[in-house]
Automatic annotation (TrEMBL):
Residues 128-267 form the Rod shape-determining protein MreC beta-barrel core domain. GO terms for cellular component: plasma membrane. Residues 293-325 are annotated as: Disordered. InterPro entries: Cell/Rod_1, Cell/Rod_MreC_2, MreC, MreC_beta-barrel_core. Keywords: Cell shape, Coiled coil. It comes from uncultured Rubellimicrobium sp. One of its GO terms (biological process) is regulation of cell shape. Residues 293-308 have a biased composition (Pro residues). The keyword Cell cycle does not apply. This is Cell shape-determining protein MreC. Belongs to the MreC family. Residues 85-112 form a coiled coil. NCBIfam families: PRK13922.9-5 (NF010533).
Length: 325
């Protein structure tokens, strides 16, 4: 039985014929292109003039793909450079922060070196190790202690103003009670009026000015220094300036920068007396008469007895009764 012919049977010979013709044309063109003749040269020129302008349009997709590949490689290089620049910027940012921190530390140290203090006072500069501030206690811990000669009660300052006093000394550390602590009470003097007051901490950044002699003589902005009363602090140390609180009470805007308290100067104050006996009372004894003994003291004898008692208790000779031997 004969097989029916399909379209593939007609297309296959035609395809072979076209391929053969294409190969033949290519060979002819190659041969003709190699012939060195004026006529062939003119033919080649005419073919080039006719074909080359159309080749640009035909090669546009290929040119675009090549340009796209070049752009992709260029973008890749740009991306790598961008990552490298970002890493450099990050490193520079770290160096910049370090430089700013060193600049601030140097500025504070310069301030510490340029502060005008009482000539008799020397000092030790310590670094704040920890801030134990809380709603009920305001204090900081320094990296200087008993080995550095720190004594309880010495005043402390930053580059400009009074910070507080030493309260607790260890071998290599010491604790400073800030002026804002609720247990802090120091005598101060308001300038230029000369009014005396007590600076009272209340765990806020603006401690109170209490016990003013004449409140009307004090104005916001007046300078406040230590009074030196009671030999607690040397006189003349800058504390801050007067400010009016929202509650209508006079408060103090401290000169010390509590928000950036990094370096603290501990003043060796010769006025602070060392307390060896915590249960004793330190008072001058010269010119003061001793107090009389009171009941309960070992030296208390009591008032002398009346004469009748003394007469009755005397050892008198016994009188013989009548009729005795």
């Amino acid at each position: 039985m004969a097989r029916e012919r399909t379209s593939e049977d007609f297309v296959r010979p035609l395809r072979r014929l076209l391929v053969g013709l294409l190969v033949l044309v290519c060979l002819l063109l190659f041969v003709v292109w190699r012939i060195d003749s004026p006529r062939v040269e003119r033919l080649r020129a005419d073919v080039i003039d006719a074909v080359v302008p159309r080749l640009d349009w035909m090669m546009a997709p290929v040119t675009g793909i090549i340009a796209l590949g070049q752009d992709f490689r260029s973008y890749q290089r740009i991306h790598e450079q961008n990552l490298e620049l970002r890493r450099e910027i990050q490193q520079l940012s770290v160096w910049r922060e370090a430089a700013l921190r060193l600049e601030q530390e140097n500025a504070k140290l310069r301030d510490l070196n340029n502060v005008s203090l009482v000539p008799q006072l020397t000092y030790i500069t310590g670094t704040v190790m920890a801030d134990s501030g809380s709603p009920f206690r305001q204090s900081v811990l320094l990296n200087v202690g008993r080995r550095d000669g720190i004594t309880d009660g010495w005043p402390t300052m930053d580059g400009l103003g009074l910070v507080g006093r030493v309260s607790g000394v260890g071998q290599s550390t010491s604790r400073v009670i800030l002026l804002t602590d609720s247990s802090s009470r120091i005598p101060v003097s308001v300038e230029p009026s000369g009014q005396k007051a007590i600076l009272t901490g209340d765990n806020s950044f603006y401690p109170l000015l209490d016990f003013l002699e004449d409140r009307d003589a004090v104005r916001p902005g007046d300078r406040v220094v230590t009074a030196g009363d009671g030999q607690l602090f040397p006189a003349g140390l800058l504390v801050g300036r007067v400010a009016l609180g929202t509650d209508g009470r006079l408060r103090l805007r401290l000169a010390a920068d509590y928000e950036q308290l990094e370096f603290v100067r501990v003043l060796r104050s010769p006025l602070v007396e060392a307390i060896a006996d915590t249960g004793g009372l330190i008072v001058p004894t010269a010119g003061i008469a001793p107090l009389p003994p009171v009941p309960g003291d070992p030296d208390f004898i009591g008032p002398p007895p009346p004469p009748s008692v003394l007469a009755g208790s005397s050892a008198a000779p016994a009188t013989p009764e009548p009729g005795g031997d």
